[in-house]
Design a protein that fits this description.
The protein is an all-alpha fold. The chain contains 13 helices and no strands. The longest helix has about 45 residues.
Length: about 375
Amino acid sequence: MVKEDKSKEEKGPEEREESEETKETKEKKEKEEGAEGEASPQQASGGGLWGALGVSMVANVVQNTTKKVVSGTLDSLEYVGKKTMDVLAEGDPGYKKTKHIIEVAGQRSHLSQALREAKEEAEKRAKEAEEEEAHRKANFGIMFDEFQGLAHLEALEMLSNQSEGKVQAVLSALSGEEQEELKAELIQVKEAFKLEDVVEEEAEGQEVQEFAKTVTELLFELHIGMSPDKLNKAQTDALEYLTQSEKDLEEGETKDPQDLHTAAIQMLAELTAKSIHQFLKAAELILMQKDPEKTPLERAQTLTKLTSALCEEVSVLSNKYCVCLNTAVSKAEKPDDFSHLITNVYLEASNSASYIQDAFQLLLPIIQESCIQTKNLALSAFQKHL
């Protein structure tokens, strides 16, 4: 104890100050550490959002860096792979052959698919073309035009308009008794152009008239040197097809209703076109003749009878075709699918008769012009005898 006291006493004032400063420094450190320990829970609780954002940003940076590394690695592998294949190809000639075989095999599979698709497309187009052709043949207007019916009708309209213009010009130039006389004759011709109603009887038990004989005799009465060969042939062909179809059905054979319908429409179109062509030729020949043996009134009456005969033949043939068509429809698997075809034939038969009658009316101005020509010829002959 005496030694320790002595040692303390021996320490100077400077040493004592240093020891006191060391103690103070230690106490400050302890306080700071205690303060940090108390503040850390607050930081953990108050700075959670900023901590999460920091983690997310770090994760994105890591992810992008990983993608770049992977992408760069793949590019490097691809480049190395290509170089390796090039080196192998240079050292192994068989490699190119093997590669070619593989490529050709792949092309063959694509080629077969292309050929299959081309075949299907061709079949589809062929079917559409076939349907379009079937529709075209079963259309009255289209077939009428194909048989030159529309061209004949237009030519007849031109002649009729020209003749009507001449008749009106002559009537305007005349006056008084001469004009009244001419008007009376023209009215007589017009009255002769009135058609009697064509009686449409039931097709059952109805006999086909002797069409060729009737038409030939009526044309002979016109005295214009014209024969109805084309018209008679069209009627004969239609009748032969109808007779054969009726015979086949009676023997138990089946007939496609669509084929019978098409044949009926073509028959009506051809018969109508040939009838109008007959009117056109008659008009041209009547205007060409300078000294007719028949009067215009007699010719008008003959043309009226001819038109009635043509309309009656259209009615008779269409009725018989419908009877045959009805029989074929009754034997079909689905009769309801074809019932409208019969109605269509009757409708087109009515249109056919209307076409013929309209063409006949176009002949009226032509016969009236021939009436004026006859008067002029008579006047010239009278003047020569004076």
